[in-house]
Amino acid sequence: MSVDQMLNQFCAAFSAKNAEAVAALFDEQGLLEFPFAGQRLVGRREIANGVARMCENLDSVSISVRSKRATEQFVISEGRMSFRRTASKEEVSCAISIVVERGKSGAARISTYYDTYAIRPWVDGKIFATG
Amino acid sequence: MSKNQELLEKFCALFEQRDADGMSDIWAEDALYEIPLHDTALHGREEILHNMRIGLRGLEEIRIVLDNVVADSGGVSAEGTFYARNIGVPSRVDGRPSRLDFRFTLILEIEDGKIKRYSEYFDTRNLRMEERTRLSTASRRSPYWEGTVEAGVAHYMVYNHMFFPVVYKHSPAEEYEALTKRVTLWDVGCERQTEVRGPDALKLVQYITTRDLSKLKTGDCRYTLCCDPEGHILCDPVLLKPYDDVIWLSHGDVDLTLWARAIAMEGKFDVTVCEPDVAPVQIQGPNSLAVLNKLASKPVDGLGFYKCMENTIAGIEAIVSRTGWSGGLGYEVFPLSSDKAMHLWNAILEAGSEFDIMVIGPNINRAIEKGVTDTGYHVNSNMNPYEAGHGRLVHLEKEFIGRDALRKVHEEGPARQTVGLFIEGNIPLLEWFWPVESGKSKVGEVRWAAHSFALNRSLGIALVDASIQQRAQVTVDHPLGKVLATVTTIPFVTD
C-alpha cells in the first residue's frame, strides 16, 4: 500500500470511528501522534485502545484531506478535522496536517499537526472546560 | 536540491538569523501567511514582514531542523522541529528557560520563485504553557470575565479579592508592540474605588492621604499615597474627583475602603464611604484617543493628563480619566454600573479593530522602563514615601495620618532609597524579593524586575541602603545565581 493510500484509509477509518481499522494500518510497533487529544500511542494494541477512547466521547468526527505532497517514503498533507462532542454537542473544526511515514508492512508513523488558534489549545478555554 | 527547496532553506536560515528584512524578496506581493500563533491569516508582504519583525523580537537562539522535505513544481512541504528561547518571558525559578519548542509541518505554495502561501501546523503539546490558575469562589470575578476568557486569558492573580487577568496567549514582545505602537484593552475591574461622598469628603481624604488637596477641583486626578501612623505606605492610589462632593481613591491591592470607613466612623467626618460598583477598563496606547472618540458622546481630545470627565461611552454613563499604568497615552473608563460591562468591552474591541486592538494584562516590561511600580512594590516592607522616591507627594504642612513619623524621616533623612538596576543576563520570574549585596553585606532587595524591550536588557527596581551610590556595582542574588548589577536612576526610558 502506498503512503497515499494509507493516508486515505486513515481518514476514512477515523471518520468512521473504527479504531481497529485505524490500528490495522500500522506496523506492529507503529506510532500514532494525536496531540490534540494528548495522545502518543505506540503499537497496534495501544493505538486501537487510544483511538477508541478518543472516539467514545464524540458524536461524530470527520477528517478530510485537501492537498498533499508525497515521496515513496512519506506524505505530508493538509486538510480539516471536525467533530461534535457528546457532552456539549459543540461543533469543533480546525485545520489539520497529517504526515504518514511508511514502515515495513504498514505505517511506521502517523503524526497530526494543527492550526487550532481559534480553539486555543494552550489555555483552559471553553473546549477543555466542557470535557 | 530543487529551487523550491532552496527557497525554503533560505527562509529557515533567515529566520534563524532573525533577519526579517532579509526576507523581503522571498515573499510574493500578495502572499498569504497562516500560522497557529496568529489570530488571523496575514495578507501581503508588508503585513507579513511587519509581524515577522515583532515575532522575531521576542525570540532568540532559534534553530529550525527539517526532517522530511518534499518539493514539486508548485511548492514544498516539510516536517521538522522548531527550537527557540523566549525573550521577555522569565525563566522558571528552578532554572528552566522559557522556550518555544515544537514539532511542525509547513506547506509553501511558490510562484515565480516567491512564496505565495505559507501555512504552518503545530504539534500543540509543548505550546500549552502552563495550567490555568486554579479558581476559588472566595475571590470575585470581574464584570469583563467573559471577554477575558474569550481573549485567551491564561493566568490570573488575585487583587482586591478579585481575579485579575495578567497573562494572555500573546508573547510579551507582541503585547509590548501593541501597547507602544497601537492600542490595548485591559480588564482592570479589580482596581477598586474607595468612594468618599458628602460635605466632608475632601476633609477625610486630606486626612488619609499625604498630598495637599486644597486646590483640588472637580475633574482633577492626583497620584498620591496613603500611610499608616508609622509613615509606612499602605498604597499609592490615583485619586479622582468626578463630582463636587465625591472623591474616588482608585487603589491597589489593599483594603483601603475598610481603612477609610473605620476612620470615617470615628464620627469626625460627615461622609459615607463605600466601594461603588465601578469596574474600570484601561485603553492604553497611541491610538487610545481615536478609539475612545469613536464611542464617546463628548470628545475626549481636550482631556488633560490626570483629568477626568463625565461622558457616555457606547451609550453607557461613565467617568473617563486620562490615567493608566502604561506611562504613555492612555485612558481609564469607569462605567457607573457593571450591568452593561460586556457591552462596553465589546464596543471598545469593535471600535479598536481598525487599529488592531489587543487585549492584554498590565505590561510590566513597559511599566518598569518608565519606572512605574505598583502597591506590591511598596507594601510589606515598612517603606516610607521618602524611601520610595515619593517625597514630593508628602506635604507636611497639612494634617494627615503618618505626618509626625514622616516629619521625623524628613528631618533625619531616609535610611533607604529606591534605585534602578541594570541586571546582567536573563532573569527569572520575580516570585520573591531578591537580596542585593555589596561586598558580603546585604544592602537591600530587588522588589520589581523585568526584561526591557526598548533597552534589550534586564531591569530591576530595588530598595537599598541610602549609602549606595549611583553607578555602584552590586550583586543580585536571584534563583538562577548571583549576578552583577549597576545602580542607576529611574525611569530607565523617558520617551
UniProtKB/TrEMBL annotation, chain A:
Source species: Aminobacter anthyllidis
InterPro entries reported in the protein's UniProt record: NTF2-like_dom_sf, SnoaL-like
The SnoaL-like domain, residue ranges: 9-104
Name of the protein: Nuclear transport factor 2 family protein
Automatic annotation (TrEMBL), chain B:
Record-linked Pfam families: GCV_T, GCV_T_C, SnoaL_2
SUPFAM superfamilies: Aminomethyltransferase beta-barrel domain, Folate-binding domain, NTF2-like
GCVT N-terminal domain ranges (all copies): 153-398
Domain SnoaL-like, chain residue ranges per copy: 9-118
InterPro entries with a match to the protein in the record: GcvT/YgfZ/DmdA, GcvT/YgfZ_C, GcvT_C, GCVT_N, NTF2-like_dom_sf, SnoaL-like, TrmE/GcvT-like
Aminomethyltransferase C-terminal domain span: 416-493
Domain of life: Bacteria
Protein name: Nuclear transport factor 2 family protein
